[in-house]
């Protein structure tokens, strides 16, 4: 420990000293999700007048983007987001923040192979342990890949960061870092508890009927996945497994209810596997030092080939809209980017190839914007909308009116199945559009 501590002290600097390593024109990568550099970004913003064209990348930046706030013109600092969420959305579709399209499972490979290498990588970590290791805590997405490729590596040490056991690539050694600074000790960003509404509970109810003992469950972000978790916690199901990209509060509910054991998993038996966590502070307390959980890099958790090895895999994700051909949009409203492909497509594909696997993409049948109600199931995706899941991959779609099977169906079967789960007020209009697009047969059921 003494040797490690001596090295630590040699590399220890103030946050302002750390920020001075950045030069004009540099590419700076921040740790993803809750490991995003907070104090460093605040210190870097103070150097605005000294720097030009500094390019910052991160994924799901949940904290205030101080460098953007300091430079509305985008001349000094410009951000790129691997996946837009949280604070990113405040600055999206502007000259301050741009989106990097990708499947989340490929982020480590892209970091090593395709993306412009970072001049500086800064990531929040736990304090160093007696063996000289820093834990990445709430996110293990691609930090090791970023460390391997960056010219300068800086750790922002936060004693409020939960220590999340691995897995793989969930920690790094003092020998792998150039500079260390100790943060102000801000608590990591927490989300309020999600309470599903009536429509989301109806959708979750249809999925619950399809679950059985021993399933391995992946939950995406949103009210429906959360509702499924709460219903499972109150059900008679048992011996469920967890393999997911994001660990959410719903898993805590299921765990505390004794529903999760992982006893039936083909791989990582008895472990709840995830790559990042985001939720309430109570959930962070649950995963801290919890040996029943295992944090992995995103190229493991989201690899469709890994997912397919797990029997009875159930993938549950949310969508913004879809069309009668089976194309799913889960990340934009027209050309306005609101999130990203993330791991949705990875899990849709992986679950389908799992023995006994099921993939559900969920959405309420309607959306109300400025008092106007419209169908989320549309003849075609809104112009400019991004197709997250191509029609060739979509398996099952769920609204509050039921489940539509898409996989293995021809175009008129898809149209019929989807119109039957659309809101009744829009079904006749959708039928007319299907007829115009030549994907409706006279023999099709109406409503």
UniProtKB/TrEMBL annotation:
GO terms for cellular component: cytoplasm. Residues 6-192 form the Acetyl-CoA hydrolase/transferase N-terminal domain. GO terms for biological process: acetate metabolic process; acetyl-CoA metabolic process; butyrate metabolic process. CoA binds at residues 220-224, 320, 343. Its EC number is 2.8.3.-. Its main location: cytoplasm. It catalyses: butanoate + acetyl-CoA = butanoyl-CoA + acetate. It is found in: Cytoplasm. Pfam families: AcetylCoA_hyd_C, AcetylCoA_hydro. Pathway: Lipid metabolism; butanoate metabolism. HAMAP family: But_CoA_trans. This is Probable butyrate:acetyl-CoA coenzyme A-transferase. It comes from Maledivibacter halophilus. The lineage of its organism: Bacteria, Bacillati, Bacillota, Clostridia, Peptostreptococcales.
């Amino acid at each position: 420990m003494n040797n490690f501590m001596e090295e630590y002290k040699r590399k220890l600097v103030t946050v302002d000293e750390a920020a001075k390593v950045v030069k004009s024109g540099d590419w700076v990568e921040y740790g993803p999700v809750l490991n995003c550099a907070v104090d460093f970004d605040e210190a870097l913003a103070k150097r605005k007048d000294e720097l030009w064209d500094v390019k910052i990348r991160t994924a799901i930046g949940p904290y205030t983007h101080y460098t953007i706030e300091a430079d509305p013109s985008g001349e000094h600092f410009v951000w790129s987001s691997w996946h837009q969420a949280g604070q990113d959305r405040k600055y999206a579709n502007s000259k301050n923040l741009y989106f990097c399209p990708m499947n989340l499972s490929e982020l480590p490979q892209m970091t090593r192979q395709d993306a412009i290498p970072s001049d500086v990588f800064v990531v929040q970590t736990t304090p160093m342990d007696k063996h000289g290791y820093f834990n990445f805590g709430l996110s293990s997405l691609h930090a090791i890949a970023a460390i391997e490729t960056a010219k300068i590596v800086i750790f922002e040490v936060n004693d409020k960061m939960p220590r999340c056991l691995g897995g793989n690539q969930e920690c790094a050694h003092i020998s792998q870092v150039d500079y260390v600074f100790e943060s102000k000790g801000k608590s990591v960003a927490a989300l309020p508890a999600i309470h599903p509404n009536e429509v989301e509970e109806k959708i979750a109810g249809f999925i619950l009927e399809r679950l059985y003992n021993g399933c391995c469950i992946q939950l995406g972000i949103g009210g429906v996945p959360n509702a499924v978790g709460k219903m499972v916690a109150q059900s008679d199901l048992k011996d469920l497994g967890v393999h997911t990209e994001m660990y959410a509060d719903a898993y805590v509910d299921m765990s505390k209810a004794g529903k999760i054991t992982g006893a039936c998993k083909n791989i990582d038996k008895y472990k709840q596997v995830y790559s990042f966590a985001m939720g309430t502070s109570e959930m962070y307390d649950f995963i801290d030092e919890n040996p029943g959980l295992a944090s992995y890099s995103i190229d493991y958790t989201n690899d469709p080939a890994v997912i397919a090895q797990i029997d009875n895999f159930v993938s549950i994700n949310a969508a913004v809209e879809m069309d009668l051909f089976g194309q799913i949009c889960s990340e934009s409203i027209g050309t306005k980017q609101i999130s990203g492909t993330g791991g949705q497509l990875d899990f849709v594909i992986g679950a389908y190839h799992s023995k006994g696997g099921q993939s559900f993409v969920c959405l309420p049948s309607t959306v109300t914007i400025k008092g106007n109600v419209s169908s989320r199931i549309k003849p075609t995706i809104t112009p400019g909308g991004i197709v997250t899941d191509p029609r060739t991959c979509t398996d099952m779609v769920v609204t509050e009116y039921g489940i539509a099977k898409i996989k293995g169906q021809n175009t008129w079967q898809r149209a019929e199945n989807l119109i039957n789960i659309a809101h009744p007020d829009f079904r006749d209009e959708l039928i007319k559009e299907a007829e115009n697009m030549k994907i409706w047969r006279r023999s099709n059921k109406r409503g």
